[in-house]
Amino acid sequence: xxxxxxxxxxxxxxxxxxxxxxxxxxxxxGEGKFTSFFHSAYGGEAPxxxxxxxxxxxxxxxxxxxxxxxxxAAGKGAELVPLMAEHCGKVTGSCKGITGFHACDxxxxxxxxxxxxxxxxxxxxxxxxxxxxxxxxxxVLCCFGxxxxxxxTMHEAMNMAMNWKLPIIWFCENNGMGQFVPIKDAFxxxxxxxxxxxxxxxxxxxxxxxxxxxxxxVMVAVERARKGKGPSMVECKCLRFRSHVEGAPDWMHGxxxxxxxxxxxxxxxxxxxxxxxLLKQDILTKxxxxxxxxxxxxxxxxxxxxxxxxxxxxxxxxxxALYAD
Length: 325
Ligand SMILES: Cc1ncc(C[n+]2csc(CCOP(=O)(O)OP(=O)(O)O)c2C)c(N)n1
Ligand SMILES: [Mg+2]
Hints:
alpha/beta; Rossmann fold; 7 strands; binds thiamine diphosphate
């Protein structure tokens, strides 16, 4: 499946949006403007953007904690400002500022993400069952990290999903690291997607630094799911340029990750790789890219102003948020 020129431009714009909102999140957290923590997706934005771009507005997505759903929301065409305001604990946030990290956007099929690694799997089975029963051809994109594949919930969920032929795309964003543990020390197999075969579903591995490759692989899985043929797994081999969580040292097995190694990774920056491709294929010129840059810079500036000027919620908001009659 090939993307058309207008889709490639949209994909590029969203990749740059994900990058610039991620960079803004790092900065705003450092300035004390966030009430939550932040797991930067810097260097690993392409899976979220590429995967979510294949979805319809009424499809469901369980976003990954890396990037706090910003790449996914950008790809799905959702507003990013309410998600950012939520991180700032402001009343204009998508959950009125009371959750911080668990920002959601039900209008766009984004119901937030749990803090418990592995919770994405059973919840996605529930959404998949709901989607199948509704009969409107909706699908579920269940995003998870490599280390989450070690949870038993994944296997229970994959078994049920395949047994019931649910319209789910199990979408692994494999950055080669759990919190502080390299994947090679946590799994006996090279590819998480090789486990798909055990459940009788297709499993493919794609270059997660290539946003187009990601989108094209997910399109195949989405089509299969919409036709009622059941789940698939797509594994994106991607990179992480920052530490696991902002403010923490960039540990690997209790030692600082080699800065030289991280610098070497930056040669495979997904934004730069896509720029080169678009220039080579005459899809966008340098000038057009600069224009996109400026437009998104203005969007980020307006977002920061909005977050700054929005009030915090009144404490009484918790009465209705936590308790129901
Ligand atoms: C059940 C559970 N165990 C441990 C944690 C702490 N924790 C948060 S993120 C993380 C690593 C997740 O790695 P991965 O799934 O590969 O995603 P990545 O952070 O690399 O994107 C861990 C262990 C948790 N949140 N939930
Ligand atoms: Mg990981």
